[in-house]
Write a structure and sequence with these properties.
The protein is an all-beta fold and about 110 residues long. The chain is built from no helices and eleven strands. The strands form two sheets. Strands 2, 4, 5, 6, 9, 10 and 11 form a seven-stranded mixed beta sheet that branches. A four-stranded antiparallel beta sheet has the order 1-3-8-7, with no helix packed on it. The termini are far apart.
Length: about 110
Amino acid sequence: QVQLVESGGGLVQSGGSLRLSCAASRFTFIHYDMRWYRQVPGKARELVASIASNGDATNYAATAKGRFTISRDNANYTVYLQMNSLKLEDTAMYYCNADQFWGQGTQVTVSA
């Protein structure tokens, strides 16, 4: 069974930074594009960033561009989301995704 386990969320002040991690196990990690989504209660899940299987290509939502960086370490089956200059509106549950597989999410809360 594929497992994706996110970590690194927490409470941070506006303007601060957090680094999310997603540890993958039990599948051929290197063959999958990886994505970070986020969701606020009552709203649809939003794609934040994606990275190709070999790490050569990345894409970002307009809200994340210039502030967030997605990266991956295929040797250690981990994908990261570095989030800088955090804003109140970045508050959400953040999910790691690979194809049809999802992690349980990690909460990011940005305070004023």
